[in-house]
Specification:
heterodimer, A: 264 residues, Rossmann fold, eight-stranded mixed sheet, 5 helices, globular, B: Rossmann fold, six-stranded mixed sheet
Chain lengths: 264, 211
């Protein structure tokens, strides 16, 4: 699945032992993916490889993080891996939707790659439909987290200190009082599947998600990436953290082209 | 969500289809149905130059030109292909909700088809005209089955396709753009001169040309 980039000189495949894998779920508003774009763009991360997979709709374009003429012609595809060894961070970006019936195969292949590359933990950025919140969730922060039991032991305390809110479970059968509580993440894409699979495979995974709706999701991406930063401290957050994230050049024209002059 | 008129609609999401149904465990009947549908959607690549039977050698190919979509296929028909210099060497048989192709090589321009031609004077030059729509779940299969039959060392691939001008993202309005116009994407291994400007961000290519 993972194909390392050919950096020439017969260099060995990158080593992700002990790294944190940061990745998005393709979810409502594409907030996870936008947040990942901010991380990759801000740290000018180097592409170290890609996923050769039949689970995502194919797409290709020129470098979405281009800053100048010189670096704008590198091809970019639907699932690519970037890394900063100094921060022990490896980032997966997913740029297209899943093909029907391919969620499960992708999750299985991804988690087995996580295990074989010996990543220490996975942080999944996601989102969930805001309109599906219950009365209590409508108040307070729209941000939630989830931890697999293995990671709960390691970082649960830290997240409590940060006053973070765990994602609530909902009744399996709404309206019936003494029913089981289950995890329900509407609009979250592969979030729930990846999380439950990680729990059963003993993989350390954290899910960070925001309640949102479709629309201009750039502010949601900033909120989510700042939330991530509260914990991982990727950038210094004493100064206004939002101003330190660099917007990639590919975010231009998200809402259409210029207007025809004849309109006026 | 509720609309102004009071009816409740499911809002389409840029994130794609809701996956909740996927998370449900499959019953044996579901699995059987899914397998049957997958079999029906399988692609067959039939090479006419292969005698069949014993070990099939990969096709030696130096240049492979692929025209995807009716416009690109028509371009090849009008300007490149003729029955004197080119011979049919293969056909793709597939079915999806949008089209069906058959294994016949005798096609009309209005049919949906996917044919391979070889230049008689240089049999390492291959051409593909794909006017049928290859669905999302079939694109990877098409790729693997077609390229799987080829020896890929030293192979140069050129892909021709078209996109609507309305999909082109640019600062100005597309109404004032002089169209049609050409844009290109190339891998870093492609060292030759490209005949037109490169595709700027944030434009992308998707589906079979991207695959």
């Amino acid at each position: 699945m993972f194909i390392p980039c050919d950096r020439g000189g017969g260099s060995a495949a990158p080593d992700f032992k002990g790294f944190t894998l940061l990745m998005p779920a393709v979810s409502v508003g594409n907030v996870g993916q936008l947040a990942i774009d901010l991380v990759i763009s801000t740290f000018d991360m180097t592409k170290v490889g890609y996923f050769y997979t039949d689970c995502l709709v194919p797409m290709v374009g020129n470098n979405p993080y281009a800053t100048a003429e010189e670096n704008s012609t590198e091809l970019s595809i639907n699932a690519e891996v970037y890394s900063i060894p100094s921060k022990k961070l490896v980032v997966l970006q997913i740029r297209s939707p899943f093909i029907k019936n391919k969620y499960r195969p992708f999750c299985e292949t991804l988690l087995s790659w996580v295990k074989s590359s010996k990543c220490a933990r996975v942080v999944l950025l996601s989102s969930s439909h805001a309109y599906q919140r219950d009365d209590e969730q409508l108040l307070g922060t729209p941000l939630r987290y989830l931890l697999t039991p293995d990671l709960e032991k390691a970082v649960g305390g830290r997240l409590q200190e940060l006053n973070w809110k765990e994602m609530e479970k909902v009744a399996a059968y709404p309206g019936i009082s003494d029913t089981d509580k289950i995890l329900h993440i509407p609009g979250g894409g592969i979030t729930k599947l990846l999380f439950t699979e990680s729990c059963s495979k003993g993989i350390q995974m954290a899910v960070l998600l925001k309640f949102c709706s479709e629309g201009d999701n750039i502010p949601d991406a900033f909120v989510l990436v700042n939330y991530l930063n509260e914990w991982l401290q990727l950038i210094k957050s004493e100064v206004n953290p939002s101003s330190q994230w660099k917007i990639p050049s590919s975010w231009r024209l998200l809402f259409g082209n210029g207007l025809p002059p004849a309109l006026f | 969500m509720a609309t102004f008129f009071g009816e409740v609609v499911v809002a389409p999401s840029r994130a794609g289809l809701d996956e909740e149904e996927e998370a449900r465990e499959e019953t044996p009947e579901d699995r059987e149905i899914r397998r049957e549908i997958e079999k029906k959607r399988e692609i067959d690549v039939l090479w006419t130059w292969k005698s069949g039977g014993c070990a099939e050698e990969p096709l030696v190919c130096s240049r492979f030109i692929v025209a995807i979509g009716r416009n690109a296929a028509a371009f090849l028909s009008s300007f490149i292909l003729d029955s004197v210099c080119w011979e049919v060497v293969g056909v793709v048989k597939l079915w999806n909700e949008w089209c069906r192709t058959s294994s016949t090589t005798n096609v009309l321009p209005t049919d949906s088809f996917c044919l391979f031609y070889r230049l008689i004077s240089d049999p390492t030059v291959l051409l593909c005209q794909c006017s049928c729509y290859v669905a999302e779940d079939q694109q990877f299969q098409w790729l693997e089955k077609v390229f799987g039959s080829m020896q890929k060392k030293g192979l140069q691939v050129t892909i021709l396709s078209t996109c609507p001008v309305a999909d082109y993202k640019t600062q100005e309005s597309t109404l004032t753009l002089a169209s049609p116009f050409l844009k290109a994407l190339k891998t870093k291994e492609f060292q030759e001169q490209v005949c037109c400007p490169l595709l700027e961000q944030p434009n992308i290519v998707r589906d079979l040309p991207a695959a």
